[in-house]
C-alpha cells in the first residue's frame, strides 16, 4: 500500500505542479488574485511532502496536512476575489497563520492519535468545502455556465467523501500515518484528493472562459471604435441627414424581421444577422469618401463620365471596409464589418442584373444588400431635397412595387408591401430636422453651402473619433490636421504636432515601409493596413496600425487621410 500512496502523491503533485506553472505564467488580469497560484503551490507542496512523510513523518507530515488545508483556504479566498466588493485577506496574515498552524499540527502529531488528527483534518477540510460551495453560489449569482455547476458539484462531492472517510476511521486505531491505512480508507482519501483536482480544473476552465470573454470584449471594443470612425467618415461625406441614417436602420430591421416571419430566408436571418444589418446600414455609402467634391456636391445632372466616377463609390466603400476589417482581431463567423462590406459593395445591384458595379443578379446579390437597396430607395423617394420634392408615401410604395422582380428581390418587396404602414410611421417619426434641409430648400442651397455643412459635420466627427486620425499634405509630408485621440497617444499639443512631418514621429528603420506606402498612394490611392511604431514626445515608442488614402480638398490639394489605431492596450 505504501508504493500505491507514493505513486498517487507523486502523480498528483506533478499534475498540480503543471497547473501551478501555468498560473504563474498568466499575463492576463482575469486571475489577478495571488491566492490562485498560492492554492496550487500549496497543494503541490502537500503532495510531495506526503511522499517525504512516507520516509519520516517528522515535520513533513505536518507541512503536508497544513499545506493541504491552506490550499483549500486559498481557493475560497480566490473565489471570493471574483466579487470586487469582497476585501482580500492580506498575504502576510495568511502566511503567519500558515506557519503557526504547522507548529501546532506538529504538536498534535506527537501527542494526539491518528484518528483524532483525521477527524480534525476532515472537519476542517469539510468546512472549507462547504464554505467554497457557498462562496461559489454567491459569486456566480445568475451565471448559468456549466463550469460553475461542475465546481459546485465538486465541493459537494468532496464534502461527502470526507464525511464517509471520517466514519470509516476506527476510533483508537493504532496506525500512525496514512501509509498504514487499509485499502478502503486509502481509496476514499484518494477520491477526496481527486475531487480537489476537479475543483482546480473547474476553476481553471472558468478562468479560461473569462479570458475568452475578455478577449471578445476587447475585440468588440475595437470593432466599435472602428465602426464609430467609419460612421464619422460616412456622415462627413454624405449628402444625407442624420435622420436618414436612423430611418434606413429602422427600415432594414423592419424588412429583415418581416422576411423571416413570413418564412423566407429563415436560416440566413438569425437575430445576430439582423442586428448586424441594422448596425451596418449607415455605412452603405461610406465609399463616397473617395468621390471628388466637384462630382459629389454638383448642382444638376452629372455627365456620363462623372456618373461613371460616382458609381465607383461602391467599390471604394467595399475596399475601405475590407481594409478596416483587417485591423480588427480575428473572429469566427459573420460580423458587422462583414455585413457592411456586403452592403457597401452591392446595394446598387439589381435583381435582374441591371445594377452596378458587378452586374450581379438574383441570389448572387447578398441578402443584406437586397434589403438595403429597397430601404435606401424608399427613403430617397420620400425625402425632400434641394433638387426635388419628396414623394407621397403611396407614390413611393407603388414605385417600389412596380420594380418587383426587376430592381428588387420579390421576397423583399413582399415584405415591404406587408410593412408599408410601418415604413410610413418610421418616416414620420424620424423626419428630417428643420435645421438639416428645409432652410436650403426655401433658398436654393449653393455649392459653398453644401461644402460648409459637410465640413462642419466632418470637423465634429473627426475630432471626436475614438481612433487616431490625421491629414498629411501628400506633397510636403506636413501634418495639416490631427484629432484628439492621436494627440493623446503621442503626448503632443495640437500646435506642436502640426509643426511636425510624419518623418518626425516615424523611427528611421521604417523608411522602406514609408517609401512603399508612398508608392501605393501614387499607384492605388491608398495603403495599408500596416503595423509600425510612432515616437511619442518623450522619445518612447508605441505600436500602431495605420492605413491611409488620398482625398482632394476644395483647393484641389491632395491630402493623405490616415487612420491610426494605438495598439498599446490591445497588445498588453
TrEMBL record:
Coiled coil: none annotated. GO terms for molecular function: phosphoric diester hydrolase activity. Keywords: Membrane, Transmembrane, Transmembrane helix. InterPro entries: Cyclic_di-GMP/3'3'-cGAMP_PDE (IPR052020), HD/PDEase_dom (IPR003607), HD_GYP_dom (IPR037522), PAS (IPR000014), PAS-like_dom_sf (IPR035965). The chain crosses the membrane at residues 6-23, 35-53, 59-79, 91-112, 118-138, 150-168, 188-208. CDD domains: HDc, PAS. The keyword Transmembrane helix applies. Pfam families: HD_5, PAS_9. Residues 219-432 form the HD-GYP domain. This is HD-GYP domain-containing protein. The lineage of its organism: Bacteria, Pseudomonadati, Pseudomonadota, Betaproteobacteria, Burkholderiales.
Amino acid at each position: 500500500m505504501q508504493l500505491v500512496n507514493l505513486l498517487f502523491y507523486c502523480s498528483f503533485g506533478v499534475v498540480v505542479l503543471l497547473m501551478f506553472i501555468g498560473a504563474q505564467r498568466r499575463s492576463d488580469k482575469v486571475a489577478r488574485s495571488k491566492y490562485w497560484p498560492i492554492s496550487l503551490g500549496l497543494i503541490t507542496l502537500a503532495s510531495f511532502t506526503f511522499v517525504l512523510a512516507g520516509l519520516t513523518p517528522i515535520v513533513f507530515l505536518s507541512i503536508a496536512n497544513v499545506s493541504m488545508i491552506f490550499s483549500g483556504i486559498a481557493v475560497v479566498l480566490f473565489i471570493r476575489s471574483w466579487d470586487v466588493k469582497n476585501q482580500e485577506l492580506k498575504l502576510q496574515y495568511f502566511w503567519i497563520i500558515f506557519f503557526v498552524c504547522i507548529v501546532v499540527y506538529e504538536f498534535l502529531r506527537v501527542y494526539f492519535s491518528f484518528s483524532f488528527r483525521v477527524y480534525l483534518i476532515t472537519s476542517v477540510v469539510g468546512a472549507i468545502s462547504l464554505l467554497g460551495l457557498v462562496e461559489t453560489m454567491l459569486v456566480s449569482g445568475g451565471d448559468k455556465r456549466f463550469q460553475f455547476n461542475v465546481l459546485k458539484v465538486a465541493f459537494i462531492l468532496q464534502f461527502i467523501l470526507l464525511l464517509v472517510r471520517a466514519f470509516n476511521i476506527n476510533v483508537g486505531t493504532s496506525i500512525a500515518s496514512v501509509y498504514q491505512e487499509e485499502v478502503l480508507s486509502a481509496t476514499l482519501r484518494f477520491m477526496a484528493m481527486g475531487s480537489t483536482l476537479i475543483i482546480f480544473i473547474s476553476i481553471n476552465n472558468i478562468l479560461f472562459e473569462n479570458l475568452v470573454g475578455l478577449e471578445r470584449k476587447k475585440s468588440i471594443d475595437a470593432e466599435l471604435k472602428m465602426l464609430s470612425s467609419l460612421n464619422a467618415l460616412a456622415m462627413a461625406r454624405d449628402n444625407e441627414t442624420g435622420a436618414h441614417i436612423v430611418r434606413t436602420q429602422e427600415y432594414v430591421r423592419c424588412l429583415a424581421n418581416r422576411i423571416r416571419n413570413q418564412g423566407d430566408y429563415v436560416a440566413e436571418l438569425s437575430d445576430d444577422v439582423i442586428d448586424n444589418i441594422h448596425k451596418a446600414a449607415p455605412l452603405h455609402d461610406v465609399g463616397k469618401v473617395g468621390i471628388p467634391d466637384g462630382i459629389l456636391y454638383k448642382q444638376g445632372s452629372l455627365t456620363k463620365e462623372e456618373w461613371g466616377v460616382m458609381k465607383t463609390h461602391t467599390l471604394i466603400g467595399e475596399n475601405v471596409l475590407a481594409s478596416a476589417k483587417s485591423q480588427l482581431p480575428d473572429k469566427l463567423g459573420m460580423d458587422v464589418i462583414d455585413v457592411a462590406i456586403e452592403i457597401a459593395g452591392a446595394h446598387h445591384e439589381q435583381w435582374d442584373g441591371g445594377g452596378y458595379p458587378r452586374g450581379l443578379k438574383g441570389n448572387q446579390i447578398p441578402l443584406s444588400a437586397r434589403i438595403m437597396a429597397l430601404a435606401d430607395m424608399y427613403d430617397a423617394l420620400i425625402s425632400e431635397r434641394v433638387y426635388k420634392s419628396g414623394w407621397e408615401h403611396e407614390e413611393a410604395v407603388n414605385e417600389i412595387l412596380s420594380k418587383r422582380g426587376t430592381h428588387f428581390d420579390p421576397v423583399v418587396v413582399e415584405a415591404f408591401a406587408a410593412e408599408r404602414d410601418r415604413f410610413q410611421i418610421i418616416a414620420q417619426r424620424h423626419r428630417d430636422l428643420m435645421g438639416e434641409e428645409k432652410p436650403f430648400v426655401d433658398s436654393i442651397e449653393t455649392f459653398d453651402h453644401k461644402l460648409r455643412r459637410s465640413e462642419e459635420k466632418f470637423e465634429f466627427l473627426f475630432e471626436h473619433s475614438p481612433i487616431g486620425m490625421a491629414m498629411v499634405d501628400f506633397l510636403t509630408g506636413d501634418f495639416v490636421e490631427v484629432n484628439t485621440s492621436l494627440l493623446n497617444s503621442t503626448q503632443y499639443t495640437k500646435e506642436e504636432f502640426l509643426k511636425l512631418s510624419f518623418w518626425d514621429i516615424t523611427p528611421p528603420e521604417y523608411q522602406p515601409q514609408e517609401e512603399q506606402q508612398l508608392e501605393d498612394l501614387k499607384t492605388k490611392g491608398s495603403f495599408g493596413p500596416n503595423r509600425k511604431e510612432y515616437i511619442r514626445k518623450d522619445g518612447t515608442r508605441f505600436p500602431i496600425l495605420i492605413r491611409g488614402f488620398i482625398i482632394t480638398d476644395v483647393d484641389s490639394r491632395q491630402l493623405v487621410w490616415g487612420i491610426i489605431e494605438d495598439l498599446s492596450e490591445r497588445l498588453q
